Amino acid sequence: xxxxxxxxxxxxxxxxxxRTVTKxxxxxxxxxxxxxxxxxxxxxxxxxxxxxxxxxGWHTASLAMRLIVDEMLRDHSxxxxxxxxxxxxxxxxxxxxxxxxxxxxxxxxxxxxxxRPDLGSCQFNTEVLxxxxxxxxxxxxxxxYMRRPQS
Length: 151
Known about the structure:
- The chain is 26% helix and 34% strand.
- By secondary structure, it is an alpha+beta fold.
- It has a single domain, classed as Thiol Ester Dehydrase, Chain A.
- A 5-stranded antiparallel β-sheet has the order 1-3-4-5-2, covered by helices on one side.
- A hairpin with a 5-residue loop joins β4 and β5.
- It is elongated and about 65 Å long.
């Protein structure tokens, strides 16, 4: 079903699948992009305030994005055209090997574009949760959507 800007309602809630994080993924991502000792060195991680290997926050953000995009592609929505950014990103709890992450969001606002009458933006409170239901990451995202074509 094609969903346009007009179809998204303030207060609408969405959930975006789940994915279990492996130690190998954590090490691979962190080795390339965030090689801090508590992400890549088991001995150093054990001695850190985290007491073991944890995922980079940027890895968590990347996994969340993947879950959201996978769902959008399954939904066959072709009207989402990207994002100008997000606000208030916070990492609240460490993500550990074996954690299963899921994403949920709620539309909290909509704005029609003044410069592009074919576009609108939606604001979403987005949370990433672990298998215990604990929020491990939270942010406010802005998504750009095509407006319904005028006949």
